[in-house]
Design brief:
Helix content is 80%, strand content 0%. It is an all-alpha fold. It has one domain. The longest helix has 43 residues.
């Protein structure tokens, strides 16, 4: 692999490391009142990295078997109709994510995920399910990851090298969360105030931020389908 490609993949992985599933929820897990639940953190980060890796392998296999070349089918009226419905649905769902509206009513969806993450009784399997749920929600917005896969495909890497690159991408993606775990473990008293401030900010704005992401993604998906269906 060329150094330029490696640096590009690392940069995209670091962008991906700031998402809801790879940074926000791990931060919530670290806000447990006792020492960091390392086993739960390992289960969570392993699950979300594994989910991303599985999605990446699926996309690479799809491209390598020629399904991605079936552009005429994917840009046909039926497929575009499904795309339009998906975009409109995402845009509609985004309005249900409003931090201000939920503030007095027990919290929104993301806040309820936070409560589950902070539940001291949560098992390893429970946080693994939480990780896969967050990853599935982010599928439509994982643009850095899809861009990284596009770089691998355009570079003509072999299947083995591509799989190794995907694995490395996923490791870099969860690395900041791993560093947070280490920091809270070895410097609990010093980092806890910073974590508390970050947690407060995210708790107030997480629902709205996720709503904006879903709304923008839905608009762009629906707009592309509408242009193809009605204006070309």
């Amino acid at each position: 692999m060329e150094m330029a490609l490696v640096l590009g993949l690392v940069a995209l992985a670091l962008v991906d490391s700031t998402s809801l599933g790879t940074l926000v929820i791990p931060l919530w897990l670290l806000m447990s009142p006792e020492r960091p639940p390392v086993r739960r953190m390992v289960a969570y980060l392993g699950a979300i990295a594994g989910f991303y890796f599985a999605v990446g392998v699926l996309v690479l296999l799809t491209a390598s078997t020629g399904i991605a070349a079936a552009g005429s089918v994917l840009r046909g009226p039926v497929a575009l109709g499904v795309q339009l419905a998906l975009g409109v649905g995402l845009f509609a769902i985004s309005w249900r994510f409003d931090s201000r509206a939920k503030a007095g009513g027990g919290g929104g969806r993301v806040t309820r995920w936070r409560a589950k993450a902070l539940d001291a009784q949560s098992s390893g399997s429970g946080v693994a399910v939480l990780a896969v749920s967050a990853g599935a929600l982010e599928v439509v917005t994982m643009l850095p990851y899809l861009a990284a896969i596009g770089l691998m495909i355009s570079s003509g890497l072999s299947a083995a090298v591509s799989a190794a690159a995907l694995a490395g991408y996923c490791v870099v993606m969860v690395l900041p969360a791993c560093l947070l775990v280490l920091a809270r473990t070895v410097a609990h008293t010093r980092v806890e105030p910073w974590l508390a401030r970050a947690d407060g900010f995210l708790s107030r704005h997480a629902d709205s931020a996720l709503g904006w992401v879903l709304g923008i993604a839905g608009f762009l998906i629906a707009r592309d389908a509408a242009v193809q269906l009605f204006f070309r």
